[in-house]
Amino acid sequence: MTLRRDTIVMVLAFLVIVIALPFAIIDTIETGRVYLFSRQFLEELPQRFTGPGRLRFILQPTVAIILGIRGGLADARAGNPPYLFGLILGAGRRRELLRSGVVAVRNLVALGIMMDVVFQLVLYRSVHPGAALVVGSILICLPYAVSRALTSRVTQAMAKT
After folding, report:
1. Are 20 and 132 in contact (CB under 8 A)?
2. What Å distances lie between residue 87 and 24, 61, 65, 73, 138, CA to CA?
3. Distances in Å between the alpha carbon of 30 and those of 25, 34, 36, 39, 40?
4. What are phi and psi of 131, to 5 degrees?
5. Nearest Cα to 68, choosing from 141, 127, 125, 126?
6. Hey, is 93 helix, strand or coil?
7. Contact 28, 129 (CB under 8 A)
8. Where are the domains of the chain?
9. With the C-alpha atoms ordered 105, 107, 110, 116, is the resulting torsion angle positive or negative?
């Protein structure tokens, strides 16, 4: 049996979340609040942009945008609708579009989640897996989806002229 890099990265991200989960549950019991929905999360959010992990707020969205451009060009060549339009309104192709997006960014999202956990340990000396899932995913998925949709739209418009 051979392990693919994709599988290893996904398993590592899953393990990081599973290992951090009991500590988050203990924190929730002790403080009576869920960190992700707390004032503390909102107050600590700006620290993520200025601390030791601030480069990832440039690097991860940049890589996601590059992957989105590549996906948008492929969509345009295949005659697919723009990505977001297809996800929202294209019931017949929604599953296919969602799957292609997940395949394109899954390693990047997994790495983003793991990086967020590491930076939480460095900055706050605790880990909140819910915040890692949200922050790591948003940094990747939003720029990817928007850049893929825009690239497809622009490429199709240029081909018509």
Report:
1. yes
2. 33, 20, 18, 17, 17
3. 9, 10, 15, 16, 15
4. -65, -40
5. 141
6. coil
7. no
8. 5-160
9. negative
| Amino acid in position 139 | L
Provide the whole-model pTM.
Answer: 0.75
Rounded to whole angstroms, how far apart are CA atoms 127 and 57? 19
- The phi, psi pair for 122, rounded to 5°, reads -70, -45
Of 158, 160, 142, 130, which is closest to residue 87 (Cα–Cα)? Answer: 142
CA-based nearest residue to 113, from 143, 134, 142: 134
| CA 107/CA 121 separation, integer angstroms | 21
Amino acid at 86: G
Residue 97 corresponds to which tokens in the numbers above? Answer: 């579009």
Task: Please give the full DSSP string across 122-137, using - where no structure is assigned.
Answer: HHHSS--HHHHHHHHH
**Encoded tokens for 10:** 């996904």
Q: Other CB atoms closer than 10 Å to residue 25's CB: what's the count?
A: 12
Name the residue among 119, 132, 145 with its Cα closest to residue 14. 132
- Reported as a pLDDT band with limits 50, 70 and 90, residue 151 is very high
- Structural element, H or E, at residue 80: none
| pLDDT tens readout for residues 3-27 | 687 788 888 889 989 998 898 899 8
- In angstroms, rounded to a whole number, what is the distance separating the alpha carbons of residues 141 and 62? 11
